[in-house]
Amino acid sequence: MIDNQDNNPETSVSAGSLEGARRATGKDPAETPETTTQVPNPEVEAKAVRRRFSAKYKRSVLEQADRCKGRGDIGALLRREGLYSSHLTSWRRQREEGALGGLAPRKRGRKPDPATAERRVIAKLNKENERLRGQLKKAQTIIEVQKKLSEILEIPMGNPDKDKNS
Question: How far is CA 127 from the centre of its chain?
């Protein structure tokens, strides 16, 4: 073992002078450009992910829990499955509410209000109606300007109904 606690610079051993620390090229590894690159942050950012359990899994765990008779059997089951006792409580309540319906995963968040959805559709249709009315008004204005221009320049305007018959 190398004793590196000597303060004498002649007898102390630096990491750069060790043969094992050198590369095959004979260069000191501290001088290579690879060591100048940034080291990634070893800190892992925690991101909680909510676990979701299928109805089949819930049913099987409840059946196993119902079969547990001895002292500590349910605790062992919970540790083995990585669950909490509150899971069993809520799953039992769901089972009592309805066999399959109670165990199905529920959609989180606010429930959609049909009146709000209807108002949203009405507002969308009113907005589209106003947009179409604006386009119609622009088209009518362009047609009137074309009529007046043809009258001023004395260009005869053809009637589409008369052109089809002749």
Answer: 31
Contact 79, 65 (CB under 8 A): no
Residue 103 contacts residue 58 (beta carbons within 8 Å): yes
Tokens of 109: 């968040």
- Closest listed residue to residue 63, CA positions, set 83, 88, 93, 96: 88
Model confidence pLDDT, tens digit, residues 97-143: 875 565 666 777 888 788 888 999 999 999 999 999 999 999 999 99
Distance CA 56, CA 85 (A): 18
Could you report the per-residue pLDDT of 63-107, keeping only the tens digit for each? 999 999 889 999 999 999 999 999 999 988 888 887 556 566 677
